Every structure is written in structure tokens, then in C-alpha cells.
Amino acid sequence: MKKAAAEEAVNRFVRDGMALGLGTGSTAYYAIRKIGEMVSAGCDFICVATSVQSENLARSLGIKTAELDEVGSLDVTIDGADEIDPDLQLIKGLGGALLREKIVAAATVKEVIVADGGKTVEKLGTKVPLPVEVLKFGHEHTARALRRFGCEPVLRMSGSDPFVTDGGNLIYDCRFGGIDRPFYLEMALDSVPGVVENGLFLNTACEAVVCDSGGTVKFMSEGVRGKREQDEIRMI
Ligand code: 5RP
């Protein structure tokens, strides 16, 4: 499912000569592999990776990589997601790369999400916790502030040590059991001292390519603009 979605997205949205963002995770992996095949066949891209892991993979496949500030905007980024709602709003970051992923997405003209069918939800926050990246300094205080939003923040571990992101920060996975007002929550989270970034990717994705267990590939496009605008107005 992941491979089918990723390869379909590359075939549909990637063209020779583009500046590309490379996502992170087990689905983005297949997109990077496919881009590597295009490079072997003579295509030329300049790519910005959203993690050290994806950068290493890209280089091993002969894909040219650059720092984000070395390129202008990116034409297309292909990245995974942990939850996708019907309006193409996302939760990302279970792979730990949310900070760079959000910066790269913001520099991208067309953000394309690739996923297996298990990632679609009616409401964000129902299947997975929301990852929140925080500074190490005072992180337990930051977690207490997060708890006030009605979640139970759990420090992400890697074996017996806290998981550390590429940016040197920690992640609290915050289970909300359904997020009613994602725009409001995003703004509230960003106002907490110590929070570096959160895994809500709102009005970020332009397209999603999702493959279900029967092998059917479905395309989702930017969603219902009116509804998004209403959400933003409610937030203000
Ligand atoms: C990493 C991410 C990934 O895109 C997300 O976790 C999906 O990963 P996978 O394709 O392995 O399910 O946000 O920070």
C-alpha cells in the first residue's frame, strides 16, 4: 500500500528539473527510492530532506541534496502522514521529523501526502496521539502546561532514553481522543513556552495519494475551502 501510493505520487507530480522536498517515514521511503530511479534514468533534481535519515537514503541513491536555504521554493514535497481527515488536514510526527517537515512544507508550492488507507480518519486525534516537540530545558514544566489542554502527554522514549529529534529536542505524544478545534489547538500549543512545534499540519497538504488494502489508489485534493475558512474564522 505504501509503495503503491508513493510511486503513484511520484509518477503524477514529479517532473525532471524540479526542486523537491523529501519526506520522512516508511511511505516517503518508497517515494525517495522512485526519485532515485528517475535520477538513474537521467533526471536532474535538487532535493531538500526533512531528516538526516532521508538525507542519507537520498545520497545513497545518487540524489543531489541541498540545505533549504540554498534553494528558493520547492516545487513539490512528497511526505507521509499519521492521520488524514476528509478536508486534508493532518497529524504528522510519529516518525519524529515534524519540525523540519513543517518548515519544508511551508517552503513548498505543492505538498503531496502519501499514505496507506489506515491513515484516514473522520476526526483528527482519534487514532494517534498528537506529537509535540519541546525544548529539553524545563520539559516537565512544558508537559504540565500541555496537560491543561485536556491531553495526557507521554515523553517519547528510544529504549531506556528519551527520543531526541534531529533538532536536539524531545517529543511528548499527547492523546486527545479526538480534536474538536484543531486550528484553535494549534495556536494554543504554539503559545506555550518551551513548545518548538506541534504535529498538526493544517491547510498544508494540496494532494493526498492513499492506497487501501485492496490496492485501490485514491486521490484527495485540497478539500472544502469554505469549511477551512470557517474554521479559521472561528479560531479568530
Ligand atoms: C515523520 C512523519 C511521517 O511522515 C509519518 O509518521 C508517517 O510515517 P509512515 O509513512 O512510516 O507511516 O510525520 O515525522
How would you write the strand order of the largest sheet? 2-1-3-6-14-15
Count of discrete structural domains:
2
**What is the correct CATH architecture of the largest domain?**
3-Layer(aba) Sandwich
The rounded distance between the terminal residues' Cα atoms is 39 Å
What is the mean pLDDT? 94
The CATH topology of the largest domain: Rossmann fold
Q: How big is the Rg?
A: 17 Å
The largest sheet, given as strand count, sense and whether it forms a barrel, is: 6 strands, mixed
N-to-C SSE series?
HEHEHEEEHEEHEEEEHEEEEH
Query: CATH class of the largest domain, please?
Result: Alpha Beta
Question: How many individual helices?
Answer: 7
Total beta strand runs: 15
Q: Using the alpha-carbon principal axes, give the shape.
A: globular
Low-confidence spans: none
* SS strand fraction: 25-35%
**Helical coverage, percent range:** 25-40%
| Ligand list | ribulose-5-phosphate
Q: Which keywords apply here?
A:
Alpha-Beta Plaits; alpha/beta; 4-stranded antiparallel β-sheet; 6-stranded mixed β-sheet; 31% helix; globular; binds ribulose-5-phosphate
Structural commentary:
The protein has 236 residues and is an alpha/beta fold. Strands 2-1-3-6-14-15 form a 6-stranded mixed β-sheet, with helices on both faces. Strands 8-11-7-12 form a 4-stranded antiparallel β-sheet. Helices cover 31% and strands 26% of the residues. The model has no long low-confidence stretch (mean pLDDT 94). The protein has 2 domains: 2-119 and 202-212, Rossmann fold (3-Layer(aba) Sandwich); 130-197, ACT domain (Alpha-Beta Plaits). Helix 1 packs across helix 2. The site of ribulose-5-phosphate has 18 residues, from helix 4.
